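Before the break, one more example. Copy the sequence into your notebook; we will annotate it together after we see the structure.
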Amino acid sequence: MISNDKEEEQMPTILVVEDDVDLCELITFNLTHAGYNVLACHNGSEALAVLAEHYRAIKLIILDLGLPVVRGSQMIRQMKQDPILRQIPVLLCTASEPPAIVQGLNNGADDYLQKPFSIQKELLLRIQVLLNRARRS
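Here is what the structure looks like once it is written out:
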């Protein structure tokens, strides 16, 4: 798990759940340089444990559907059954086929990006839109 120092705690915290270690590190690096605090996990079970501990700080979750241990769609279902966790926006970043994406959206994901995607052009913009929408509600 990766996190930034205390000085940056005022910045939004994003939980990245991605089993591809290289992609997870790339996303984490770019989000950190964009000013976000980042927590990173490589499977859904680990992510649920991190959520249980840090739910107050996490403002957005970037989630791969094809995770080991607990699949992304299972994680969304569990989150959306919890009155506190259901408020956290979920952005799917997946190489899955359209039926899996539709299932993720039906389970409560707020948006999705199809892999491969541009971190600078697509991911950072969608994050900002979802965070702004969450602040307004």
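Residues 2-9 have pLDDT under 50 and may be disordered. Strands lie at 13-17, 37-41, 58-63, 90-94, 111-114. Try to locate both features in your own notes.
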